[in-house]
Amino acid sequence: MAAVRVMRTWSQNAGRLICVRYFQTCNNVHVLKPKYVCFFGYPSFKYSHPHQLLKTSAALHGQIVQFKLSDIGEGIREVTVKEWYVKEGDTVSQFDSICEVQSDKASVTITSRYDGVIKKLYYNLDDIAYVGKPLVDIETEALKDSEEDVVETPAVPHDEHTHQEIKGQKTLATPAVRRLAMENNIKLSEVVGSGKDGRILKEDILNYLEKQTGAILPPSPKAEIMPPPPTPKDRTTPIPISKPLVFTGKDRTEPIKGFHKTMVKTMSAALKIPHFGYCDEVDLTELVKLREELKPIAFARGVKLSFMPFFLKAASLGLLQFPILNASVDESCQNITYKASHNIGIAMDTEQGLLVPNVKNVQICSVFEIASELNRLQKLGSLGQLGTTDLTGGTFTLSNIGSIGGTYAKPIILPPEVAIGAVGSIKALPRFNEKGEVYKARIMNVSWSADHRIIDGATMSRFSNLWKSYLENPAFMLLDLK
Amino acid sequence: MLIPFSTKNCFQLLCNLKVPAAGFKNTVKSGLILQSISNDVYQNLAVEDWIHDHMNLEGKPVLFLWRNSPSVVIGRHQNPWQECNLNLMREQGIKLARRRSGGGTVYHDMGNINLTFFTTKKKYDRMENLKLVVRALNAVQPQLDVQPTKRFDLLLDGQFKISGTASKIGRTTAYHHCTLLCSTDRTFLSSLLKSPYQGIRSNATASIPALVKNLLEKDPTLTCEVLMNAIAAEYAAYHQIDNHISLINPTDETLFPGINSKAKELKTWEWIYGKTPKFSINTSFNVLYEQSHLEIKVFIDIKNGRIEICNIEAPDHWLPMEICDKLNSSFIGSKFCPIETSMLINILHRTCPEDDEVHSKWNILCEKIKGIM
Which residues does the UniProt record annotate as the domain BPL/LPL catalytic (chain B) (predicted)? Predict the structure, then answer.
């Protein structure tokens, strides 16, 4: 069994570490002449049991290595540091990105040559950095093996301490390649290197394995195909589990910023309002027929007609009878203001989040006018261009959660309003008519929430019934239309 | 000649590039000419990222040809507020993208060709690539006076810029890409690339505006198709490879595993706006009040696209100081974005009960501030 004693010296000229290795057998402890002199470029090769090696070597602990800015090409001598990806104290692995520098329209990513801990950054943002001068100080782990001369034993099981040696022959390979070879129980001597000076590259290992197994290997870890995220449909079908699954996910904490912070504020304010809920079912069979007739006419006028304009107009007619639902209370709930305009807000789900623009003065708009206004707001909402006027001044809100899905909801009132309604999706369901026959009805559920400090259940119920009657018999709406 | 390859062929070509035969030095020259079938700037930029990260270009350079629907592309370390008219872009539906290479801001549309030269880091040579383009142009039109400059631009007739350059250098690979103005809408270009925002102080890379011209204006035979084929032919001749242009679909996960997530990252607000180097705005605007103009001063510091420090100073008789302070503190931490500002003001209205007059003043202030975002 050969133990290895390693001595390392710094060579000033080369600016690199020169490794001089001595071999020593257990029995005769005589120092042989230095067999191989190798250049130390990649000291960060990890063994499965690093300690075994270290005990026998005259290794140094926590060496601080100055990582110099290497040549970028095209004779560039200086660059500007534009972004740091690490800070002092961070741990980096070989090939991790350290910083981004820019020179004359070229953006360069500088990657680490070593594993270790960043001890010092030599430049601040926007400083000029010089090629050949130190960029960062990295404290590497106790120096490990160099590029050359790995001791080889016959291919052994993975978990035993393995070491590969080619007697009397140099094999050039980076630590990453050596690790790959070791993981796959490959003798480096059997692999022909295709790199410079016969260096063994990762592709050579992959090809070697390919020949052995006769199969195409999966691509390098970086290019591995990510399994596409499961669609909602997939989640509903149960997958038979054959072996215990190991979950390696980690928790992630991040501060709540921007829009979400504002949601927190609104909802906390809304929480102060004592809510009560009231739900009902609306038979929209007649309205569905009506809309089918009117849709092409509206389209001819350049407007997309959904059900919302009808809901808004019916709500406005209802608010005329029950103006308390269109009111506003002050913070201490001392005064109540009955708002004259019916500015009905519609909850919109945009890329940025929940926005509630409102249609102004629904009480004087026709259904068509409401429809075209909704079109305008929807278009602006999707472009992210809703103005402040559109977003403020609402007095009552209708949320169409049914457009996404769902039946019942418990909507939260948006202060300073006092009531809100949420309509679900329209479903075809069997119902009984007056004659007792079953017919195909278009059913939609509505869920109301109101401020119980000033609105009672009876008022909400009567409003809902009125709203419902307008929608179930659109002709009735015609009678009260203003 | 555009000869579309089947997907399988293309995959094998790419596979061959990734895993070269071991133990034997390739003396046979090889390389690839790719052309994107997509006009989506994010997908095409994602192709560049993918090739840069995953392909082994040793002895096998790649040329990538692509065109985009109207978009403005800023360099890695630039400030979009400084470089282009974001309000106009929002109105017109022009996309904004931030690429990973350095350099300045450009406008892309279907009349502009983008060329990307992928090589190993050792073979990175921008001037060589530009000379290749010039040879290609002269092969089509020998009388054309096109010269590369020291700043790696291409000038037509010694004064009009027809191409701008940028590049990205990684650990082992590098790419150099450049534009080529064929038949771009020049008036639109100049209006989009002119920033209306005042008072910006920043260390971001500034673009250098130049007088531009389209090649088509010089010679009507120089269409995009003609030029792309000419450049492909010259590239093939130079690298001694077959003159075949392989069409690729940038959304194909089997060809480019992981590319769709790269494209997604390029579309995020954090990448496009959040990567802007720290900057500050020092400006003012006027509001009308009782037949006189009041000046409102604005000092905002923005880091990672979010407001770090906000000082909006309005005269005390117009808007009481406590209310101004409340507004200032609410802005901190939110994105420097008109949409977020709208939402913020909306929330403030709901949660801070003030009278209508104050609310309307808030609205006026809000609209003005959104105008500078």
Answer: 57-243
Q: Hey, is the C-beta of B121 within 8 angstroms of any chain A C-beta? A: yes
Mark whether B287 and B267 lie in a shared domain: no
Residue A433 makes CB contacts below 8 A (sequence gap 6+) with A439
Considering the domain architecture, whether residues B291 and B183 belong to the same structural domain is answered as: no
Query: Which domain covers residue B325, as residue numbers?
Result: 279-371
Does residue B3 fall inside a structural domain?
A: no
Total domain count, chain B: 2
d(CA A242, nearest CA chain B) in Å: 28
B1 located within any domain: no
Q: A interface mutation test: which of B57, B169, B367 has the most A CBs within 10 A? A: B169
Let me know if residue B27 belongs to a domain: yes
The pTM score is 0.68
Q: Are residues B220 and B290 in the same domain?
A: no
Low-confidence ranges of chain B (pLDDT < 50): 1-8, 15-27
We report the CATH number of the domain holding residue B362 as 3.30.390.50
Which residue of chain A is at minimal alpha-carbon distance from B207? Answer: A105
Residue A52, chain B, CB below 8 Å: the answer is no
State yes or no: ipTM above 0.90: no
- Verify that B68 and B114 share a domain, yes or no: yes
* Cα three-residue angle B150-B154-B156, rounded to 5 degrees: 125
Taking only the tens place, the pLDDT of each residue in A29-57 is 444 444 443 344 344 444 444 444 344 44
Cα dihedral angle (A262, A263, A269, A272), rounded to 10 degrees? -160
Task: Return the higher-pLDDT residue of A255 and A453.
Answer: A453
Residue A33, classed as helix, strand or coil, is coil
Catalytically active residues of A, by annotation:
452, 456
CATH value at residue B248: 3.30.930.10
Q: How many CB pairs under 8 A join A and B?
A: 186
Decide if A392 touches B, using CB distance below 8 A. yes
CB B101 within 8 A of CB B118: no
- Residue B282 to residue B298: CA distance in whole angstroms: 6
Which residues of B fall within a CB distance of 8 Å from A107? 75-77, 100-103, 166-169
Structure tokens at B261: 């997530």
* A153-174: average pLDDT: 45
Across the interface, which of B121, B171, B253 has its CB nearest the CB of A95? B171
Helix (H, G, I), strand (E, B) or coil at A83: strand
Which range, A15-24, A96-105, A187-196, has the best average confidence (pLDDT)? A96-105
Considering only CA atoms, which of A218, A264, A417 is closest in space to residue A326? A417
Q: Is the dihedral of CA A146, A150, A155, A160 positive or negative?
A: negative
Last residue of one domain, picked from the residues B272, B305, B332: B272
